[in-house]
């Protein structure tokens, strides 16, 4: 008689035990917990990076490669020696002005050679003072510009000095009443042209070593700069 109630009680206890075990197992698995409302979650604190003072790091090696250092003495002697040699060639025909050379026909070839050397020397007096600057890497200089300007002023001086004069062959200049009126101005222009020529020549010779010195001392570096949370690069030059 009592078997059925006992069995029912045992079955009920076993069922309760199984339900308890299943409930604990489910609660231990991830994702089975109840979601937390967004308002209950506290955001982690945000720490701002400390402000750093302005820093300038040491510049690293120069970005633009430089060639070998050039010599100031070479630049000087290129300008000075080239100028002296050009004037020496310019006055070479003076060596053949003696009577012995002028009367001898065998020296005609030497006179032609001297005339060619004089032409080369004339061009050299314009270009040679700038040789040292070309060696240093500078194309057009102040002295070269003065010499070019001297040529223009000299041409204007000749035109002004001869204004009013007839240049026809076989014409008597005394018949031109206006001939010679511009001579004072023309002579002044010629003197000014000579001063420009000499000044430009001296300036190129003197400035040639300084040109090399400035080019050798030029340095360009790229320096990183850091200020707080910002960074950048700065181009620094020393001349």
How would you explain this protein's 3D organization?
- With 239 residues, this protein is mainly α.
- It has a domain at 72-223.
- It is 55% helix and 8% strand.
- It has helices spanning 3-28, 72-90, 99-103, 108-127, 131-136, 142-161, 183-217; strands at residues 55-56, 219-227, 230-238.
- A hairpin with a 2-residue loop joins strand 2 (219-227) and strand 3 (230-238).
- Helix 2 (72-90) packs across helix 4, helix 2 packs antiparallel against helix 7 and helix 6 runs antiparallel to helix 7.
- Residues 59-65 have low confidence and may be disordered.
Order of helices and strands: HEHHHHHHEE
Any idea what the radius of gyration is? 49 Å
Total E-strand runs:
3
Shape assignment = rod-shaped
Total helical segments: 7
Distance between the termini: 119 Å
Instruction: Characterize the largest beta sheet: strand count, sense, and whether it forms a barrel.
Output: 3 strands, antiparallel
Strand order of the largest sheet: 1-2-3
User: Structural class of the secondary structure composition?
Assistant: mainly alpha
Poorly predicted runs of 5 or more residues: 59-65
Sheet-strand content, in percent, reads 5-15%
Q: Give the helix proportion (percent range).
A: 40-55%
Kindly state the mean pLDDT as a whole number? 75
Give the arrangement of secondary structure elements.
Elements: H1 3-28, E1 55-56, H2 72-90, H3 99-103, H4 108-127, H5 131-136, H6 142-161, H7 183-217, E2 219-227, E3 230-238
Antiparallel strand pairs: 1-2, 2-3
């Amino acid at each position: 008689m009592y078997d059925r109630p006992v069995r029912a009680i045992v079955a009920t206890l076993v069922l309760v035990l199984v339900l308890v075990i299943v409930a604990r197992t489910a609660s231990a698995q991830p994702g089975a917990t109840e979601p937390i409302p967004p308002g209950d979650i506290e955001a982690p604190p945000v720490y701002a990076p400390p402000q750093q003072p302005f820093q300038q790091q040491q510049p690293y090696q120069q970005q633009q490669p430089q060639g070998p250092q050039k010599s100031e003495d070479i630049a000087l002697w290129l300008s000075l020696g080239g100028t002296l040699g050009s004037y020496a060639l310019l006055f070479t025909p003076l060596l053949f002005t003696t009577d012995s050379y002028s009367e001898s026909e065998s020296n005609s070839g030497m006179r032609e050679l001297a005339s060619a050397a004089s032409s080369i020397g004339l061009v050299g007096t314009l270009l040679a003072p700038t040789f040292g600057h070309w060696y240093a890497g500078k194309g057009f200089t102040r002295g070269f510009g003065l010499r070019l300007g001297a040529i223009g002023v000299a041409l204007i001086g000749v035109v002004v000095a001869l204004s009013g004069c007839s240049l026809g062959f076989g014409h008597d200049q005394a018949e031109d009443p206006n001939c010679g009126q511009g001579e004072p101005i023309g002579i002044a222009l010629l003197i000014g042209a000579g001063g420009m020529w000499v000044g430009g020549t001296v300036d190129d010779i003197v400035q040639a070593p300084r040109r090399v010195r400035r080019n050798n001392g030029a340095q360009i570096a790229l320096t990183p700069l850091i200020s707080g949370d910002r960074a950048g690069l700065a181009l620094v030059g020393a001349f």
